[in-house]
Design brief:
- The chain is an all-alpha fold.
- It is 63% helix and 0% strand.
- The protein has one domain.
- The chain is built from 4 helices and no strands.
- α1 packs across α4.
- It is globular and about 35 Å long.
């Protein structure tokens, strides 16, 4: 699924220092989609990426957790 949900998470990507590239775009999309699905299943955020981004950003624990996952998904840094 190519949702490009990362566009709703640009601020968190910037905070994490993660650059979305052709090589890592699918991984980053998958991390965000999986995170939203997992957290929304437990009532922590919406399933809708545009809503979830604000909810995750507002919760320090969720934000930090997602930022760490995004950093890992980015891949090796030059």
């Amino acid at each position: 699924m190519s949702m490009s949900c990362w566009k709703w998470f640009n601020k968190m990507l910037d905070d994490a220092g993660v650059q979305v590239t052709e090589e890592n775009r699918d991984r980053i999309d998958a991390v965000i989609q999986d995170y939203i699905e997992m957290r929304s299943a437990h009532g922590r955020c919406s399933r809708i990426p545009s809503e979830a981004s604000g909810q995750i950003s507002a919760d320090r624990t969720l934000r930090d957790e997602l930022i760490e996952r995004l950093r890992k998904a980015e891949g090796p840094r030059p």
